[in-house]
Amino acid sequence: MARLELNQLSKRYGDFFAARDVTLDVADGEFLVLLGPSGCGKTTTLRMIAGFVEPTSGAVRIGDNDVTQLPAWKRNTGLVFQSYALFPHLTVAQNVAFGLEMRKAPKPEITQRVGEALELVRLGHLGDRLPRQLSGGQQQRVALARALAFQPDVLLLDEPLSNLDAKLRQEVRVEIRKLQQSLNLTTVMVTHDQEEALTMADRLVVMSEGAVRQVGSQRDLYERPADRFVAGFVGRSSFLSGSLETPERFRSAGGIAVACRPSTVATGPATLALRPERVTVTPEVASDVENGFIGEVEFVSYLGGLIDLHVRLSPSDVVIAQIPNREDGFMPRTGDKVHVGWTVASASVFPGSGDDADSADL
Amino acid sequence: MRGALAIDSRTLGRWALLTAATLTMLYILAPLISVTWLSFYEQEIPSFPPEGYSLRWYKLITGNARFVDGLLLSVQLGVSATAIGLLVGVPAALCLSRFRFPGREALNNLLLLPLMVPGVVLGTALYVFHVEAEIATGGRFAILGSTLGLLSGHVLVVIPWVVRLVLASLAGFDRTLEEAAQNLGADRWTTFRRITLPGILPGVVAGAMFGFVASFGNLEMSLFLVGPGRTTLPIAILQYLEWKIDPSIAAVSVVQIVLIGTAMLVTDRFVKISRVV
Predict the structure, then answer these.
(1) Taking CB atoms and an 8 Å cutoff, what residues of chain B touch A78?
(2) pTM reported for the whole predicted model
């Protein structure tokens, strides 16, 4: 396995940037996940690494080699396709052997390595089957074995779990992650599924409109989102628009004043983002929060273990609070007046008073 | 009561379907059956009922040099035309399905044209072209009535079938399989040979089969292109019919039907042509 480096990689179609200045450094043995909505450029980036999309500018380096100009078949990357793309006319063993045959490995070595790769995904007994005789989960494992058998420098996963049913997906997630760790595989995975990204990655890259918005650990993205898009895409946030009056005070459009962390954002129009589970809801004034407001419960959704409350603080400010569903807990109903609060550390401020587009996905 | 009625109408429907299917099959098979029957008649003038049965017409045609030579020439022509048709048609179909370029539609139609132009028109046009070509080159390019001229005409007849049927199977071919092969280290040619070709093989084989049959049975165009002393089987049959009507023609037809039918059945065992056609 090897290090993977993307240096200012861009792909332009006419005036449209499918990927713009993507710069990433994937360490040897690291599991990096590219996360973003469809059309954000994550798949284009993956295909540029594999060599199926020729970058307009920038470079791809695998190990010590610049592979930007190399065709796909000379790059030594192992790609697991979303549709698996198993060769229908070849048996499982022949599929797995394909990469080794292309590298002119001697026959006995091929047999041995195919056996090992199939054992790795626990399909050693199905080598003589044709792909269509296997279940979706088994086909997925064959695709993985095929991508690993020839010992690629980098493993690439293109939404590898999206064709599996929900229960199987959870199992395979853990399975792939364990395999990746035990073999120390440098891996890049593309997904739009947040939960999948959070459970599998060492590090995540959030992309939108062709550009990298933030790179970091799960905790980084959740606790310190770099911008409003990340705050809305990773986990949930409620947004209040308004302006930053001083570096430590935000005033909403509805007129409420919020104390916040000293931020580097310039004073002026700004948006405040709040994680729903960081918002406390109490019948009386709570003393342990810096920001306390009285609001009216507008909407209650009962989610089983958790309850979502939409609380209106002013004619134009609504926050979402998520509270645990406890037997002895406080359980407000629609129309109740409640005390809502949050600490200085729980809110993030971003420049620009946002439009309504992001609040729509709450 | 209602239940019984429902069953009755369903049974009725099934019978209607069966009858229609049988009639259609009969309509298709009737000429084949009667020609086969006729080929075993004893008497020379086809009349009903037959006076007896014999194999004399089969013996007669195997002894007839015109039929034997015609058959050989037709087979040679068909095989070579099909081979060349594949060499031209398969890459053409690949280009048409893979690339968007100016004049793509025009090329697509041009390649299918020989199928739509009546054989007589095609034959006349080629004949005139051959004459003009000889005149223009002062006779050095002696294509008129040559094997090359005849073969090039037959290639034209084969190409539309190959292009059409290969295009059909390419439409159902998953191109990510090619990317998978390239990701595993196969260059373009290896990818084509190991992955694409096996994937579109039913279309290629079906195209070759139909192209061969079209070339083998071609009469109208060939009439204009054959040279003296060299006739294809359909022309030999036509010429024989001008003088005689006896069951030997039926015997020749049966031989053709058996040859082509066997070829189809054998190929279908290895490649499921029915998946494309």
Answers:
(1) 183
(2) 0.80
